[in-house]
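Throughout our pipeline, every protein is held as a single compact record rather than as scattered files. The record that follows is passed on verbatim for readers who wish to inspect the format.
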Amino acid sequence: MHYTVYHLKSILSCNQLFKKLKIHLSMKAIKILPYVFSVFLLTACASSKPINTLNHLSGNSWALASLLGEGLDMTQFPGGIPSLSFLADGTLSGFTGCNNFSGDFSIDDSRLQLDLGAMSKKMCPGIGERDFIAALSKVGSLKIEKDKLTLFDGTTELMSLVPKKN
């Protein structure tokens, strides 16, 4: 009987010791956690490379996905989806959904200026081409996120484009 009581006391002591150790470890972990998180955050941020805007632009042909905040009404673009292609030398070419154009662009950080240049002059049904060209003439900045190019006039989204599938 004496052994059983002693054994129970030692079990209780071990449980109490374990709880104290667990609480102590938990408090240490809580104190260290901000440092671990900071190191993780700095490492993650340091390893992500900034997007080279010109390389990303010129590495893709871009197809129109939305215009003036709306999805595309393909009846307004009977000749196909409008597109843009930026070349590393500053040359811009595109398709309005009816006509082709060739001009140039300049980029500085997130600022973008487009000059559509020469354009073919086919007669086009619908108002899609007109709206697309009007929006392109207002472009002042851009934002690139993974596989999406968004063109803006100030804070107003003019259009979004996605890489064109070949």
Confidence is low (pLDDT under 50) at residues 1-9, 39-50. The CA atoms of residues 35 and 41 lie 10 Å apart.
